[in-house]
Amino acid sequence: MSSGRFAIATHALALLAQADESCASDALSASINTNPAFLRRILARLSQAGLIEAREGRSGGYRLARPAKKIRLSEVYAAVEPEGAIAPSPCEPNARCPIGSGIQRAFDEVAEAANAGLLRGLAQKTVADIALRAQHLGRPAPAPVKAG
């Protein structure tokens, strides 16, 4: 089940990859167009995973804990989506049913394989890769205005 946290976390990390100094959560949330408090919860998970560092105070903000080319997207996903991509059923199956008695274990096997495949795919890309691609696909920066 997708929550959007991975996309938001990746966006924030791509911004930090391009920053020369620490960025405040307000500046990050303005680019992402999300609630700063929600973003701070995601940033806290990234910090706990050792992907970013947080500094308090006037010159505070967030910055990458290591170079963007050394942060794999699989690490980002694991930090913000620890439950994986496929959620189990919220229903308690009927244990007397031949299917119901084994469906949870059978489904867990499928979900585990799917999550492993997802993580393998994400491990092929880094934050630097996605930041560079986003810049390439994004709007070009406006040309400087020449004075008179």
Automatic annotation (TrEMBL):
<dbReference type="InterPro" id="IPR036390">
    <property type="entry name" value="WH_DNA-bd_sf"/>
</dbReference>
<dbReference type="InterPro" id="IPR030489">
    <property type="entry name" value="TR_Rrf2-type_CS"/>
</dbReference>
<protein>
    <submittedName>
        <fullName>Rrf2 family protein</fullName>
    </submittedName>
</protein>
<dbReference type="GO" id="GO:0005829">
    <property type="term" value="C:cytosol"/>
</dbReference>
<dbReference type="InterPro" id="IPR000944">
    <property type="entry name" value="Tscrpt_reg_Rrf2"/>
</dbReference>
<dbReference type="GO" id="GO:0003700">
    <property type="term" value="F:DNA-binding transcription factor activity"/>
</dbReference>
<dbReference type="Pfam" id="PF02082">
    <property type="entry name" value="Rrf2"/>
</dbReference>
<dbReference type="InterPro" id="IPR036388">
    <property type="entry name" value="WH-like_DNA-bd_sf"/>
</dbReference>
